[in-house]
Amino acid sequence: MAPPFPLPGPMRRALELARAAELAGEVPIGAVVTLDGHILGEGENRNRRDRDPTAHAEIVALRAAAERLGDFRLTGCDLWVTLEPCPMCAGAISHARIARLYYGAADPKGGAIEQGPRLFTQPQCLHRPEVYGGLGEAEASTLLRDFFAARR
Amino acid sequence: MAPPFPLPGPMRRALELARAAELAGEVPIGAVVTLDGHILGEGENRNRRDRDPTAHAEIVALRAAAERLGDFRLTGCDLWVTLEPCPMCAGAISHARIARLYYGAADPKGGAIEQGPRLFTQPQCLHRPEVYGGLGEAEASTLLRDFFAARR
Predict the structure, then answer these.
(1) What ipTM was predicted for this assembly?
(2) Is A127 annotated as a binding residue?
(3) CB A10 within 8 A of CB A1
(4) How far apart are CA B79 and CA A117, in angstroms?
């Protein structure tokens, strides 16, 4: 049965990037930064490949988009990611002035948006994006569940 | 009058890096990663120069140390930074498995260690370093105060 609405293109692309990360032996998470519907930057989880503790999909995509735009602030840009961002990535999203955050699966263990520190609700938070969760949730969580099941 | 104890070498170096950032027109914050007392990676705030929303001193130092070590986990390493880390950097410190965090000035506006989300006290937090604040606090906060006063 087809889903009632097709997934938006950027989230479909983020899921493709998550699958590519898995093939490379990384935790399957993908992210895309868009401006006015066009993709400005892409990222997959690259911790192991790049030997970089900060190389989550969101950070990779934000850095790529900022380089492309020539500005450390991505004002008016949106971020699409397959999993709820962790505190590191939520902080980076705020620093980058992302306008809208779309994410797939919630992450009860490591998420920082709708659980744990709920960073965008903290009074200290200088910039809060609009947040839309659950887009492509089924695909994103199946990818992650299969990845961790295969490693147990 | 000389201070009662000399500052440890890594914090003196972090303050030098903060001064170098200021000369380059960046917010004056510096960081150093050490292993067994030897410097593995250094960082200064580079947001504007690198056009990178994630280029805080801590992130730059963690990435440099991980590249040098050839591992995305910096187990047993210490991080020295002139200002209390923000949520993004606190998250990265946790992902990198930093053993001890030494910081200078507290940051009531943006800090995530002893105020705001207090990330290392969150039950979700998978790795908490030992934390020592206030080392070189006077020098670090004077640098920041002068920087922002000159821009008003």
Answers:
(1) 0.95
(2) no
(3) no
(4) 23
